[in-house]
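chain below, 137 aa
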Amino acid sequence: MARDYETLLGNKNAQLYTEKDEPKVKQLIIDYFKQCDVDGRNYTMSGLAQALGMSRKTLVNYEKKELFYSLIKNAKQIVETQLEEKVIDKKEYCLGQIFNLKNNYGWKDQQEIKTTNEVNISPLESAMNKLVESTDD
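prediction:
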């Protein structure tokens, strides 16, 4: 697989994407996913950021901007979906994918703990309560 090192080095002006650049950003995202499919590579947030000529952290910050919110959120969902599918596929299962989901997508291990409000009383108290109940009748 040949790499385009010019693309890998990124666009120093990436942080300057504006409203007029939205179609360009969308096309770069589409091209990234298509190229991954052609090359047989997994989708990653770092790879997506690289395709846009920015760092992963900058990409995450773009997700917070109203202008790019939906676009980046949807792209991130595509990456997350592929990761999730690989986690449940026994041939593809890898702890690294679980780590990625936990750290980049808010997944967590969940334990269910059941609590009760039962109060243990001493045998003496129990006997006294029974005596009181019997005298009430």
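The chain is about 60% helix and 0% strand. The chain has a mean pLDDT of 78.
thats it, cya
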